[in-house]
Prior knowledge:
The protein is of the alpha/beta class. It is built from 16 helices and 16 strands. α6 (about 220-235) crosses α9 (about 275-290). It is globular and about 75 Å long.
Amino acid sequence: MHLHWSEERGQNAILFTTDEKRSDLVGEAYCLKVTPERVEICANAPSGHFYGVQTFLQLLPPEIYSSTTVDHVLWQVPCLEIFDAPKYGWRSFMLDSGRQFQSVDFIKRYLDLLAMLKLNVFHWHLTEGQGWRVQINRYPGLTQIGSRVAQGEEQQGYYSCEDIREIVAYAAERFIAVVPEIDVPGHCEAALIAYPELSCFAQPPESVMGFSPNLICAGKEENYQFLQQVLDEICALFPGDYVHLGGDEAPKDNWDKCPACQKKIKEEGLKDSNGLQRYFAKRLADYLRRKGKKAIFWEDVVLQDGEPLPDNVVVFWWNSRAHGDLAYRNALRRGHSVICGTNAYCYLNYPVAPWSQYDRSRTFDLKTTYEKNPSDLSDPDRLVLGMACCLWTDWHVRMHMIDQRVFPRIYSLADQMWRRGARRPFDVFYEILKSTYPRLKILGVDYGPAMAEEVPPGYQWE
């Protein structure tokens, strides 16, 4: 039996209802019911209604996503009843806008795609060695100089305060929270070129193309004031509960030689420069706590024992290729919430077949991430907030190259973030996924190969 659309008054209505007596309709949960008379989406929160609509759209012919009028399509859906609720409250996609700059329109387009996939967090990596992308009024050099330090194609530019407010509002309309990342103390070459006094020896870095010992000096008190003033403006621009403060890949060579850093280590009774980074992270996290925010750090801050971090710290487990689940276990042992998004296999910049600096050891296909993803926990601890996937733009991944890396593999990750219970057999999942290809074509998504054996000879990832 199918629902046939009609223009007759009172027939084939779409009803949005609530039922506060239903204890299962909490948060983003919804119940979609299609009968010959009507479509009803019942939820007790606007986000539940929104996700019910996304499911309903997927039941319609792909042409529903067309931006132009389409004739000769039978608009019908099967009669059914679906109860649906997500496995995780945190379902994120990270985009690296630090190494490569993307336009506001591109960001909005991806927010639309994330909403379609029922992802609800846009993790926005806004600072890097190759570029500082967020306007900070108190320190105009961060964008006037720092957004232009790299010379590659699409490596120039920044987001104004107006741009950011526009994007945050656009995301909120789609029930997506925008979480900014200001990566410190490493990956900061752009900021150090703009303000060399932030470094240990007041010298600008010579290169911006790879992570280096050129860190923000953790021994200078004035640097904490600088970072707090930056965070004041970040918190005003991004109203959500979280700010990501990076903390990864910070070689301590300069800190080990810096008189100010060594003095700070002695004054605070710290063991070494690794302890100094935990002190640095703790001070920033404490500052965010006073502003009612939680601080996210990459796993590096919990790989070693040391001074406890504040309880508003969330750990992003990422480097399973190097450390397995050590960071995950350490974070849980210390009582920190965790986001699971490891480089095996949630990093969508890793292509399906070798490209540029990505050799075969850093490739994976749809089946790999569907069946072997260590971030896909069958019995997650209560401290696990959810899952994440990332699109880094290393090696000049420009805007036109992103779709073919993200799609279709992101479908497997979105399924793991949302779907409860046992995984469907891969062959079943893959057939369902392939049915989405007509929709992606209508949406203008230039999706790439899903499977290693499907990559045609000479395929160009750029």
